[in-house]
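Hello again, I could really use a second opinion on something today. My current little project is about how a certain protein chain folds up. You're getting the sequence in one-letter code plus the fold written as tokens. Here's the protein in full, and shout if anything looks odd to you:
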Amino acid sequence: MQDPNADTEWNDILRKKGILPPKEKPREEEEEEDQIIQQASVVKSYEDMTLEELEENEDEFNEEDERAVEMYRQQRIAEWKASQIKNVFGEVGEISGQEYVQEVNKAGKGIWVILHLYKQGIPLCALINQHFSTLARKFPQTKFLKAISTTCIANYPDKNLPTIFVYFEGDMKAQFIGPLVFGGMNLKVDELEWKLAESGAIKTDLEENPRKQIEDKLMTSIRCTMPVTNNSDSEEDY
């Protein structure tokens, strides 16, 4: 009787027609495939592991796995360091005039700095300081600072307060001076967020200017209260 596992043309035809079962694989070949599948699943687990998990399971890896494990470990360390660098702030710092150059002009490469010059007793300044606290937590990669105006700039006029300076790598990129720029005490935190985002200092998730909605409603209200002229009556007068 002909061997059904023999590599013959006739057996191949019978296998295709389903008369003969699929050719049995040699045990060595099956073991090799099982090993490949097992290694693939182990490598997949490396990708899913955190840095702590890689360290905890270090004893379970064989010598062949060590190179892959080390690669993923270095990748996790790099990701962790990057996240730490991007989230080094998260709160509003208070500076004096002596710290201005170091904290603002020399903040570092790739660092945006937003500085609020304020003075106690000015309500809008207090409101912006509150908004700064909220925005500093939302955008921890940006350096939010505040300083009493006259400690940074001698004889800085109160009429210019609040004042916000935006710096990037030591260069001033934007400035907002005086209460009219901020719209007075009606300033909302998302409106300030949009204004700062336009300068490039933060990356907002707002899709449009919140102030625009207020302005559109105001214009609609004005149109509704304007007197309507009757063109037909005017023509009759002539």
Remarks:
- Strands lie at 93-94, 112-118, 143-148, 163-168, 171-177.
- Residues 40-44, 221-225 have pLDDT under 50 and may be disordered.
